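New to this. Please check this fold:
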Amino acid sequence: MKTFLLLILSLSFLDAQDVLTLRNGESRAGRISAADANSFRLDVPLPARPGAPPAFASVSIPKSQVASIAFARDPALEEILGSAAPGQLEKIAALWPAQLVWLDVPMSPAARIGRHYADLLLRSGGVENAGKAQEIFGLIESKAWSDSDRIAAKQGRLRAMVATGRAGDAAGEAARLADGTGDPAVRSEAKLILADSAASSLKKLLRDNPRWQDDAAVIPERNRLYHEAIDLYLYPSLFEGSEAAGAARGLWGAIEIYQLAGEPRNALECAKDIAIIYPGTEQAALANALIASLPDIPPPDAKKNPAADPAPQKQPAAKNSQPDKPKKKSHETKKPKKS
């Protein structure tokens, strides 16, 4: 029985091996137990001996000799990364410091771990957490081996900048990225940052001018901010629809603006789009709840929506606006003139 258990332990170790592919074409399998700027330490299992516990030999492999690494799957790590609950924050915070040395290593999960940690920090709220998230996103953006990780980190850094109160700086960088990047995910994120900025300005304007409909000087600015926010929020779903996360976020942002403007039908249509097209996103549950809370609003008639056009033009009066003179009744006759 003991020999059988030792065999199982050895097999489980082999199943969870990291595999290093060297530049000369050879492969080395084991568990990477440490790394520094110059080398990896690989624990390699030795042949099992009956009655003896599993034994391993540690070898040092220079980084310059390694072409790539296939890291073993870690179920415990996958469980942490699969949860978006802020309760996982302490667990992943404990993992992060050891990951820094792995950021530039091909196939390393370090950037994924860091992105998840930074996302949880943003979800937890607070300027301090947002500042930590911005720092982590910045490290990943500058050092990660994967283009996709660097792109996702750039998006996260922009969100973190807004959360730290640097919305103006984030909007300035987003404006440069919005039309200057070829990556659809970054472009969508930039549009959403600009949309949030316009929405924030719109809300402040309405707070400062509760009777904006009666102020001819405020109406144009209100309409400009309204349309700017809507156009930017809808951009990801209209032009980058394959980026589901950004498209759903944008549609939900548009819903909030439509609700602010008193346009429930437009809000309902956006909610239906999220529920049908992007059911796997975070906004889908919010959209379904909104759909359930709103009646099925009939299509609007030919009249203009006063919220979208708060100063509609008056209809010109009809040409024959004077009431017609009453016609003479049939039994009425003219009196004869006197001769």
Notes: The beta strands are 18-22, 27-35, 39-45, 56-62, 66-70.
